[in-house]
Amino acid sequence: MTDIKATAAAIAPFCAGGGLITDCSMAEQTSFRCGGRAAIFAVPSSEKGLASMTAFLSENRVPFMFMGNGSNLLFTDAGYEGVVIKAGPDTMGDIRVDGDTITAGAGASLSRISKTAAAEGLTGLEFASGIPGSLGGAVFMNAGAYGGEMKQVLVSVRSMDLIGNIIERKAEDLGLSYRKSIFQENGEFILGAVIRLERGDRDTIEAKMRDLAAQRTAKQPLSFPSAGSFFKRPEGYFAGKLIEDCGLKGLRVGGAQVSSLHAGFVINCGGASATDVIDLMKVVQETVLDRFGVMLEPEVRIIGSY
Ligand SMILES: Cc1cc2nc3c(=O)[nH]c(=O)nc-3n(C[C@H](O)[C@H](O)[C@H](O)COP(=O)(O)OP(=O)(O)OC[C@H]3O[C@@H](n4cnc5c(N)ncnc54)[C@H](O)[C@@H]3O)c2cc1C
Hints:
Layout: H1 4-11, E1 15-25, E2 37-44, H2 47-59, E3 64-67, E4 73-75, E5 80-86, E6 95-98, E7 101-105, H3 110-119, E8 122-123, H4 135-141, E9 144-145, E10 148-149, E11 154-160, E12 166-170, H5 183-186, E13 189-196, E14 198-199, H6 202-219, E15 226-229, H7 239-245, E16 252-253, E17 256-258, E18 265-268, H8 274-292, E19 301-303
Parallel strand pairs: 2-5, 3-5, 4-19
Antiparallel strand pairs: 1-2, 6-7, 7-13, 8-14, 9-10, 11-12, 11-13, 15-18, 16-17, 17-18
The structure holds flavin-adenine dinucleotide.
């Protein structure tokens, strides 16, 4: 990006207070706690602010990308020469309950939406309570766990295209399948979604959420930075099992390690660079391909070339 200062000055009026950082460490904005810097990190003040910001950036051919809570992202060490636009929890994170439906903004965290649902005695979102992402990121990824996925609860999604038009699509038109949605192809910004749940018993819902949280704590390396399961589940296999069967649990490259608790997780055990993570990913991919003939595809979205 040629003129960072001028771009920052032009988009500052469209940002939330304190929501514009130049030369921003993306390690600080992502759950992996590693990776390079973004020329500009921006949190729009509103949907209107977002529309004005993307219009300016498009007109001036400044590259930009979107993020939510940064729990499925790895920025390469070279960083991102453009504007990273985040759906903020304060400016785009409203949650509204109406009967058995919840309407929420993209920046609302899944855990807050799940807690709201539980408090209202609405069942169906317990699976999502421990996924550390925003609603926008969960729609984008069709996030899922413990037999549930966003596809099962979404009614509709509002998004904004690159020229500021707002589009509302029904869930069946979102191309939702395992960790896939049309937003991975169309480049739109997810603004929010409507979720439909069912009436249930608050105590039962909360007990289920506690049980799933206990399962996560027992089986996942939650005390280390990571982006969750590093690889997608290949058809007919489990990535973690393939990795474990290759004897790769605990394998380390620099500060990155295949978790010895859950082989599907790559963790940052201190001072990892994104290059460490990517080099480790390649060793895992080559070893599993060699041994089982299965090419593991990263579920984590890697920004930058590698
Ligand atoms: C400890 C841990 C456990 C996890 N467990 C699970 C799990 O059980 N199941 C699961 O599915 N995932 C899991 N994840 C991964 C991650 O939490 C999910 O993929 C989540 O949905 C990502 O949401 P996010 O807001 O953090 O998205 P980000 O990481 O910020 O972004 C992910 C992708 O979505 C895009 N995106 C985000 N917001 C928007 C928006 N508003 N508009 C357009 N594009 C957008 C980004 O460009 C990026 O490509 C886990 C991660 C961690 C760290």
